[in-house]
Backbone:
């Protein structure tokens, strides 16, 4: 399995803690706001099935879903919340891109990517 951005920390979602009592989901890990991937689901072989990227406790970056063979099924680029996606890519089981949608104009997409440094 080749994970997207394998250099980033991955933690089981159940190991994270809520650090806000508001309706906004803000997560911590080891006493700090969490930055990295929260793994929400695994396949039976313990490979990652579904994960969300967090920065300073909030969803910011990629939400990835994988096929059992380890290839990326879909990736969604989000800002502040998983409902605020600005890009969605879907792939077939062999890794070929089959669908790509930007939810913003190209100019607004570029502005968001640059402002939040999303592609690192």
Residues:
């Amino acid at each position: 399995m080749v994970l997207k951005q394998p250099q980033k920390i991955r933690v089981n979602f159940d190991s994270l803690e809520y650090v806000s009592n508001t309706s906004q989901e803000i997560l911590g890990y080891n006493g700090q706001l969490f930055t990295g991937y929260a793994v929400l689901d695994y396949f039976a072989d313990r490979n990652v099935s579904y994960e969300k990227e967090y920065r300073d406790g909030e969803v910011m970056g990629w939400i990835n879903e994988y096929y059992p063979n380890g290839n990326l099924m879909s990736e969604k680029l989000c800002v502040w919340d998983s409902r605020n996606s600005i890009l969605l890519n879907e792939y077939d089981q062999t890794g070929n891109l089959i669908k790509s949608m930007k939810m913003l104009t190209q100019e607004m997409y570029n502005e968001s990517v640059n402002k939040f440094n999303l592609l690192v």
About this structure: The chain has one domain: 10-112. Residues 10-112 form one domain.
